[in-house]
Amino acid sequence: MTYTVIGHCPRTGRVGIGIATFSITVGMYCNGVKSRTGVTISQAFVNQGNNALVLRLLEQGYKPDAVMAQLAANDPDHEYRQIGIIDREGRVAAHTGPKTRGWSGHKVGPGWLACGNGLVGPQVVEAIGDGFMAEPDADLEHRLLMGIEAGRDAGGQGTPQRHKTERSAALVVHSRYTYSDIDLRVDLHEAAIDELRRIWLEYKQYEAFYRERSRNPRDAVPQEVFVARLQPKTAEAVA
Amino acid sequence: MTYSIIARCPRTGRLGLGITTYSIAVGGRSEGVRANAGICKTQAFTNRCNDPIGVGLLEQGYTPAYAMRVLADNDPDHEFRQIAILDRDGNAVAHTGSGTRSWSGHRIGDGFVAFGNVLAGPQVVEAIADGFQAATDEPLEFRLLAALEAGRDAGGQVGGEGHLPERSAAIRVVALPDYPDVDVRVDLHPQAMTELRRVLEEFKQYEVFYRERGRNPREAVTQDEFVAQLEARRRAAQLPV
């Protein structure tokens, strides 16, 4: 009972993941994103060893299909896993094991993959793909968030009779550094995707400030001063 | 305006970071926690290149002291950084640059470093250290949490106009595998420390279920069944469901 979009931005080469689920602290399992390498997710019955292995294989130059074959060979329970892999060139491999629960499946597009299990139906991964592709020129994090929001709005997890709440969600994007560009999480919340959007919108306000403060500490203003300047702007925007 | 602790559990060898701050999404900037290597954590005017370099050096077998010298040589603004480095054996070094905002400082203990900047005073890092050492038999994640809570209770962060709320917080613990053992976060909340305890305590209820479901999927119960069992146990113990 999880739905996810992973993507590669053809403009910038950035890679990232957007994910939401009923399970708590799902961001803990999003350690499969690496600058200039690729992005991977393992979900359903998660083999937590997969992500690090996938990134090492991608780094060595294996193509996503070949990496997936390695995972299959390495795991007697591969049929319980749902796995997506995208390399730095946007090539995609996907696997939805027959033993994953509920409606489960994936949809692959150029440089992206929508996948989920325990969903109300195939319309959810269709909607995630449409959401992700709605604004192809936008920043990757925006597109990933649009993807999972569209998945939620198409019914998300559960059965047609009973929707299951998204209790945790995460948004992770890497570009070309040894650290993340964006790494935001909601670990336990009754409307985790709404909360993720709130945090992302707030984070966008601070993003340049945090970056510049690090790079040019000599010229940095204190964060309290920055926040005081921010607040009138926010009030103006509301008015 | 951040206070943190990095530590090694002497019983298990697990390594962990506990951190809280006024800045948002602080847990998204903790790349320097690596199983079988150690921890490098930079804060104040964070140079985000530092932590991957520092932990990479530890992984190659360099000492924390050497790693710190490399970071100093690599950064013209080293005096604006606050950095703590701990290796897998518990050896630790720390640097609080003179350009960090007052009060800032650190305390190195046996297998841990408590450190922070823009704090109410030195009593905050002392309290973090005391909080960490109060219950040495607890799992590392709860010792880290207790340390941060003690730091908060000793006054925490103080900016130009008084106490600054903790808006984000995180705990990450690694054991032997190359994925985290515990990795819980609060990215934007008016009382991030209180919320972090709530999230960690809830996570601990699910921890074994999540791990075993992945390792032995053939025998896994559904999460619906697990949640129903959890609620039943809570009702039996007269706890809120």
Summary tags:
heterodimer; A: 239 residues; alpha+beta; Glutamine Phosphoribosylpyrophosphate, subunit 1, domain 1; six-stranded antiparallel sheet; four-stranded antiparallel sheet; 28% strand; globular; B: 241 residues; 6 helices
Helix content of chain B: 25-40%
Low-pLDDT parts of chain B are none
Largest interface by residue count?
A-B, 46 and 52 residues
Please trace the helix and strand order of chain A, writing H or E for each element: EEEEHHEEEEHHEEEEHH
In the CATH scheme, the class of chain B would be: Alpha Beta
The total of beta strands of chain B comes to 12
**Highest CATH level, the class of chain A:** Alpha Beta
Radius of gyration computed on alpha carbons of chain A: 18 Å
What is the CATH architecture term of chain A?
A: 4-Layer Sandwich
Report the sheet with the most strands of chain A, covering strand number, pairing sense and barrel closure: 6 strands, antiparallel
Distance between the termini of chain A: 40 Å
SS-based class of chain A: alpha+beta
Number of helices of chain B: 6
Question: Looking at CATH, which topology of chain B would you report?
Answer: Glutamine Phosphoribosylpyrophosphate, subunit 1, domain 1
What does the overall shape of chain A look like?
Answer: globular
- The fraction of residues assigned to DSSP E strands of chain B is 25-35%
Architecture of chain B in CATH? 4-Layer Sandwich
Domain tally of chain B: 1
Give the strand line-up of the largest sheet of chain A: 7-8-1-2-11-12
Helix content of chain A: 25-40%
CATH topology of chain A: Glutamine Phosphoribosylpyrophosphate, subunit 1, domain 1
Q: Would you kindly provide a written description of the structure presented here, covering whatever features stand out?
A:
The complex is a heterodimer of chains A (239) and B (241). Chain A has 239 residues and is an alpha+beta fold. Chain A has one domain: Aminohydrolase, N-terminal nucleophile (Ntn) domain (Glutamine Phosphoribosylpyrophosphate, subunit 1, domain 1, 4-Layer Sandwich). Chain A has helices at 50-59, 64-74, 122-133, 140-153, 192-215, 223-238; strands spanning 2-8, 15-21, 33-34, 38-44, 81-87, 92-96, 103-109, 112-119, 157-159, 162-164, 168-174, 182-186. Chain A has a six-stranded antiparallel β-sheet, with helices on one face. In chain A, strands 3-4-5-6 form a four-stranded antiparallel β-sheet, covered by helices on one side. In chain A, strands 9-10 form a two-stranded antiparallel sheet. In chain A, a hairpin with a 2-residue loop joins strand 9 and strand 10. The longest helix of chain A has 24 residues, at 192-215. The relative contact order of chain A is 0.16. Chain B has helices spanning 50-60, 64-73, 122-133, 140-153, 192-215, 223-236; strands spanning 2-8, 15-21, 33-34, 38-44, 81-87, 92-96, 105-109, 112-117, 158-159, 162-163, 168-174, 182-186. Chain B has one domain (2-192): Aminohydrolase, N-terminal nucleophile (Ntn) domain (Glutamine Phosphoribosylpyrophosphate, subunit 1, domain 1), CATH 3.60.20. In chain B, strand 5 (81-87) and strand 6 form a beta hairpin. Chain B starts with a strand and ends in a 5-residue tail after the last helix. In chain B, helix 1 (50-60) runs antiparallel to helix 2 (64-73) and helix 4 runs antiparallel to helix 5 (192-215). Chain B is 35% helix and 26% strand. The interface between A and B is large, with 46 and 52 residues.
